[in-house]
Amino acid sequence: MIWLGGLIVLLTFAAIIKRYETRMVLFTSGLIMALISGKPLVAIDAFATAMVNPGLVTVICTVMGFAYVMKLTKCDAHLVHLLAGGLTKCRPILIPGTIVITFAINIALPSAAGCAAAVGAIMIPALIGAGVHPALAGSAVLAGTWGSTLSPGATHNPFIAKLANTDVMTVIAVLTPADLAALAVVVVVLTATAYLRKEHNVTMLSDVENKQETESFKVNLIKAIVPVVPLVLLVLGSKQVHVIPEVTVPQAMIFGTILGFVVTLVNAQEITKQFFAGMGDAFGSVVGIIIAAAVFNKGMELIGLTGALIDAMKHSESIAKLAATFGPFIVAVLSGSGDAATLAFNGAITPHAQQFGFGIIQMGQQAQVVGALGRSMSPVAGAAIVCAGLAGVNPVELTKRNGPAMLLAAIVTMVVLM
C-alpha cells in the first residue's frame, strides 16, 4: 500500500505540473488513497473540517476582499505610482529598487499575479524607457513577487500558525530574517546578472507614450497610504511590538476597507459588492486548494505513506532539510504554483517537524518560501506570464535571468531557518 501511495503521489504532482486543475487532482488523489485504505468517508470528513477552519477561512477571505476594494478605489495604483515615481529618478538603483518595491507591495497586496500586473504596468515600461533590456525589466518585477510570504493574509502563514498553535505575526517574525537575507541575495544576483549580460543600458526611451502616461498620473498621498494601513495596524498590535491593542487580520482588513471608502467616497454599494466578491473568490480558489490538500493529506495518512516518510526522515536530519527545500521548489518551478506542493508538505510532514529536530514554524516557513521562490522563476506562473506580456518577451527569458538568484535564495533560507 505504501508503494502504491507513493506512485499516486508522483502521478498527482505530474498532473499538477501538466497544469490539470489543482483542486481536482489533489481531491481525487486523496480520495483514491482513502478508498484503497478502506476508509473513504474519513477523507470526506477532512474535506468538511477544512471548509470551516476559522483560523484560515476568515483571514484569507477578508484579505482578498480588501484587495478587491483597493483595486476598485484605485488606492493600489496610487501606492505603486508613489513608489515608482521616486525610483525612476535615481537610475543606479532602478533594478534593485524595482525588486524591493515589488516585494514590499506584494506584502500589502499578496496576489503574485495581481501585484505583477499593478507594478509591472508602471515599472516595466519605465525600466525599458530608461534603457533596461525588456527581458530584464520583466525579470526584476517577477523577482519581487514573493513578498507575500511576509503577509498576514498569505495562505501559508495562518496555516503554519495553526499548526504551531501560535498567532500569525509570531510566524512572520520568525521568517523575517531569512526572508530579508534571501531578498538581499535576489537583489545582488539579479543586478549582477544585468551588468554581466550588459542589459542595464541597452535602449533609450523606447516607450515614450507609456512614460508620459506614468508621469501624468497625479498621486494622492492619502489614497496611496490606505493599502498599507492594515499591515501597519497588525505590526503595531503584534506581540513583538504591542504599541496598540492586538488587532486580528479580519479587523485590520475591514478597517482598511472602511478607510478606503472614507478616503475615496466610491459608491458604498460597489465597495460592498467587491469586498464580498473578493471573499467568494478567495474561498473558491485559495481556500479551495487548502480543502483539497486536506483530503490529499488524509489519504496519504490513511494509506500509510505519511508514517513511512516520517520514519525515513527521523533517521536523517539532512533528508528532512533537503525535502523541505527542494521538494516544493522543484514542483513550483515546473507547475507555476508553489501552493499545492507547499500545502501538501506542510499538511503531511511539518506537524512532525520536532521529531526531525526542527521547529514547526521553521520547517513550514521553509517550504512556503522556497515554493514562492520557485514560482518566481517559473515560465508557466501567472505572474511570469503577466510580466513577460508587459515586457513583450517569452516567459522563458525571465526564467533564464531569475533562475540563479532564486536557487541561491532558496539555499540561503535553508541555512538561516534550518
Question: Describe it for me?
Answer:
It is a single chain. This protein has 418 residues and is an all-alpha fold. It has one domain (2-417). Helices cover 76% and strands 0% of the residues. Helix 6 (94-108) runs antiparallel to helix 10 and helix 8 runs parallel beside helix 21 (395-417). The longest helix has 36 residues, at 268-303. The radius of gyration is 21 Å and the shape is globular. The model is unreliable at 204-210 (pLDDT under 50).
Proportion of helical residues: over 70%
**Order of SSEs:** HHHHHHHHHHHHHHHHHHHHH
Helix tally equals 21
Largest β-sheet summary? none
Q: Kindly state the mean pLDDT as a whole number?
A: 82
Give the tags.
single chain; mainly alpha; 418 residues
Task: Annotate the secondary structure layout.
Layout lengths: L1 H16 L4 H16 L2 H12 L2 H20 L1 H13 L6 H15 L3 H18 L4 H9 L13 H9 L3 H29 L11 H9 L4 H5 L3 H8 L12 H16 L3 H36 L1 H10 L2 H19 L3 H10 L11 H16 L6 H10 L3 H23 L1
Helix pairs in contact: 1-2, 2-3, 2-15, 3-15, 4-14, 4-15, 5-6, 5-7, 6-7, 6-8, 6-10, 7-8, 7-11, 7-20, 8-20, 8-21, 9-10, 9-19, 10-19, 10-21, 13-14, 15-18, 17-18, 17-19, 18-19, 19-21
Short characterization:
By secondary structure, the chain is mostly helical. It has helices at 2-17, 22-37, 40-51, 54-73, 75-87, 94-108, 112-129, 134-142, 156-164, 168-196, 208-216, 221-225, 229-236, 249-264, 268-303, 305-314, 317-335, 339-348, 360-375, 382-391, 395-417. It is globular, with a radius of gyration of 21 Å.
